[in-house]
Automatic annotation (TrEMBL):
The keyword DNA-binding does not apply. PANTHER family: TRANSPORTER. It comes from Candidatus Methanofastidiosum methylothiophilum. GO terms for molecular function: symporter activity. It holds the Pfam family SNF. This is Transporter. InterPro entries: Na/ntran_symport, SNS_sf, YocR/YhdH-like. GO terms for cellular component: membrane.
Length: 439
């Protein structure tokens, strides 16, 4: 059977951007920034995104398009030996991420509905509201299940009809709404304090853990280190420039995260909400700002609807990685693969759905959901990143160079190979050691 390809250049770019832009930008970036002290973290994050993120994304696109295969199959075809293990790390990381990602995505469905049923009011204490909801295990599992079912359905529809069509119109609308919220946010009384926290760095609090958190956030947000961009890259037609695509996707992804911060921190400082409040940060701050706006219920509903869609385009990417694997390598049908793997991710996600107050489930001294997030983003994804760059830099250098130059010479090809060979893997490794306290 002929391999599926993206229907158009813009379709691919929007789908890859759709995979990158998701809860990672609007939910995870503000709360991780809040928990890591603010501005200094943001600066380190940007440096990492451009110096490591872009080269790793380009490396993944090159592996994907030159092999036209899934994350495991690509390594098998291009070199074989032990290399396919790298693809496996990706598949496992993707599963873990999807399991808790769907819990948070389920919250967006709940908040969409609640926008009309009492959440948006100056009399509501949004922290209490959030805590009450998240400690209701049954509701959490219910919304998580709905989210996974929708994800399964879209993946089942296939690359072009499902993923591409959905991503096209909706992402720009989300950016527009965020811009509007930024205007409201920066005119709040707490805005100066919020913006100072967000943009005025204090390096005295930076530790190895902060830098590892920034690295993990970069990998998570750009969907790197887990074969997603290898898989999406495998569907890219030959006439699309890979280096340009890597830049565009990264730039848009960063823009969305940056905007989210301009809404969240002014709001947090205005309403006396701790910026380090944890996973609930946006669910606590945003309803407070909506309550102050005319037609707040409608804005709230629209916002959570779009966030849900952003989460969906990312979850599709997460599930597609393992679906592509069983489809290519084990000849499963798309339908069977989407159903079986989606259901498995749901089951693995149940402890995460319950760990926010229903039961006390801790791992490595964190709540279960946070522990899964830490394990996948800060450990497995960077590990995937180390091996992908080493693979491109040392094992398939010539193939990779040919692949990225197909549409015209890439000016920075030498620097890119150099980064893949040494700078990226070494710095990821050092950050990793520093982050777990070994350096
Ligand atoms: N990048 C997505 C986000 O920021 O929400 C999360 C993600 C999607 C990670 C797809 C990995 C992936 F394959």
């Amino acid at each position: 059977m002929e391999r599926e390809v993206w229907n158009s250049k813009i379709g691919f770019l929007l789908a890859a951007t759709g995979s990158a832009m998701g809860l990672g930008n609007v939910w995870r970036f503000p709360y991780i920034t809040g928990a890591n002290g603010g501005a200094a973290f943001v600066l380190i994050y940007f440096i990492i995104v451009f110096s490591i993120g872009v080269p790793v994304m380009l490396a993944e696109f090159a592996v994907g398009r030159s092999s036209k295969l899934n994350a495991v199959g690509a390594f098998k075809k291009l070199k074989g030996g032990k290399w396919p293990v790298v693809g496996w790390i990706g598949i496992i990381a993707g599963f873990i991420i999807l399991s808790y990602y769907s819990v948070i995505a389920g919250w967006t469905i709940k908040y969409f509905i609640s926008s009309f049923t009492g959440l948006i009011s100056p009399n509501v204490n949004t922290t209490t509201y959030f805590n009450q909801f998240t400690s209701n295990g049954l509701q959490n599992i219910f919304f998580q299940a709905i989210f996974i079912l929708i994800t399964i359905y879209v993946v089942y529809l296939g690359v072009e009809k499902g993923i591409e069509t959905w991503s096209k119109i909706l992402m720009p609308i989300l950016i527009l709404i965020l811009l509007l919220l930024v205007i409201r946010g920066v005119s709040l009384p707490g805005a100066p304090d919020g913006i100072r926290f967000y943009l005025n760095p204090n390096f005295s609090e930076v530790t190895g853990r902060t830098i590892l958190a920034a690295l993990g956030q970069a990998f998570f947000s750009l969907s790197l280190g887990m074969g997603a961009m290898i898989t999406y890259g495998s569907y890219i037609p030959k006439e699309i420039s890979l280096p340009k695509s890597a830049f565009i996707v990264t730039f848009l992804d960063m823009l969305l995260a940056l905007l989210a911060g301009f809404v969240i921190f002014p709001t947090a400082f205005t309403f006396g909400i701790e910026p380090g409040a944890g996973t609930g940060l946006i669910f606590i701050t945003l309803p407070s700002i909506f309550a102050l706006m005319p037609f707040g219920q409608i804005w709230s509903a629209l916002f959570f609807l779009l966030l849900f869609i952003a989460a969906l385009t990312s979850a599709i990417g997460l599930l597609e990685v393992s679906v592509a694997y069983v489809k290519d390598e084990r000849n499963w049908s798309r339908k069977k693969a989407a159903l079986a793997l989606g259901t498995t991710a749901f089951i693995i996600g149940v402890p995460s759905a319950l760990s926010n107050g229903t039961i006390s489930l801790n791992l490595f001294g964190m709540q279960f959901l946070d522990a899964m997030d830490y394990l996948s983003s800060n450990i497995l994804l960077p590990l995937g990143g180390i091996f992908v760059t080493l693979f491109v830099g040392w094992v398939i250098k010539d193939t990779a160079l040919k692949e990225i130059n197909l549409e015209g010479k890439f000016k920075f090809e030498k620097s890119w190979i150099w980064i893949c060979r040494t700078i990226a893997p070494i710095s990821i490794f050092l950050i990793f050691l520093a982050g777990i306290g070994l350096l």
